[in-house]
Amino acid sequence: MPQVTTPQLQSILDISTFVFAVAILIFVGVEAALLYAIFRFRERGDDRPAARFVSNQRLEIAWTIAPLAVLVVVFALMLGAMQRISAAPADALVVRVIGHQWWWEFRYGDVVTANELHLPVGKPALLEITSADVIHSFWVPSLAGKRDGVPTQIQRLAITPMQEGTFGGACAEFCGQEHAWMLITVVVESADQFQTWLDGQRGPATTSTSDPGAQVFLSSTCINCHTLRGTSASGTAGPDLTHFASRATLGAGVAPNDDAHRAMWIRDAGALKPGALMPPFAFSETQLADLVRYLGSLK
Ligand code: HEC
Ligand SMILES: [Cu+2]
Q: For the segment 91-126, what is each residue's pLDDT rounded down to a tens digit?
């Protein structure tokens, strides 16, 4: 059986189980009628067309009404389930989820982060899913169903996580070359841990302009595409890096977030993630080392 960790998944499982049970009943009923007809009438042994089918108005009405009734019931139950998986109480935690080629932006009010979604356990969250470019699809199978991120539209997905832990997900709509490396990490933690995390993300970058790594960053084109809150870097084409080092991976899950991979990423992001929309950089070894260390300090 699938692991069900949210009431929303339970709604989906309930309706699937019901439809499956109805399908089994129909299958058994139809097969039974078939076998009955074969054995009950086998001695007729008669292949005149009229003997094979004699019109029966009552039967015809019945087999028109019965499937219709089944579909109406399933449709009504489904409307209820759709409502339950996309609605949340007014005090729910609202997170704006924006798909980009090929990474995820998460906005908690004015707190902006990427690729790693944090949620407090036991509290309803309402994701408002959209896209900055093409159609993406937010999918974390252990927490909820899929929901497309469509440019200019907002689609809602409710998640009430009931278990702490780290849950993996992915973009589920083919969105270009790096679609397969557009992973999602969801960290479900206690209310206290979540608040600590959120407060940490809210603060400005731990930047001292005298840091040689900060100088490399702020004097390069990095600032056109990345934001470091509290500095002049305010680009939005790439992930907000204000608290980049608090994330476990880089490039939406393509590599662990450590010094070696940060260096590889800056030298040539396309070597780690072919097609990534970040250009390669030819820094000197010292500049690169300073930059990598600095990025690692952005907790
Ligand atoms: C043309 C825009 C552009 C420029 C210039 C640019 N980046 Fe990026 N950067 C991106 C994009 C887009 C991504 C996301 C790529 C992906 O995951 O597919 C990214 C991702 C990153 C990441 C990984 C972030 C994460 O959360 O996974 C780091 C670190 C990074 N860039 C650092 C830099 C540094 C340092 C510079 C300057 C030397 C720089 N970038 C210059 C566009 C840019
Ligand atoms: Cu995508």
A: 999 999 999 999 999 999 999 999 999 999 999 999
Say which ligand is closest to the CA of 98.
2
Pocket test for ligand 1, best of 226, 234, 236, 272 (most atoms within 8 A of CB): 226
CA distance 219 to 61: 78
Indicate if the pLDDT at residue 74 is higher than 80.
yes
> What pLDDT digit, counting tens, does each position of 16-30 carry?
999 999 999 999 999
Q: Is the CB of 105 under 6 A from ligand 1?
A: no
Atom of ligand 1 nearest to the CA of 102: 18
Residue with tokens 């992915």: 170
- Does residue 233 line the site of ligand 1, with CB under 6 A? no
Ligand 1 atom nearest residue 277's Cα: 12
The lowest-confidence range among 51-55, 97-101, 230-234 is 51-55
The helix (run of H) or strand (run of E) holding residue 147 is strand 147-149
* Rounded-to-10 torsion of CA 132, 220, 231, 114: 30
The domains of the chain, with CATH numbers, are 7-86 (1.10.287.90), 93-193 (2.60.40.420), 212-296 (2.60.40.420)
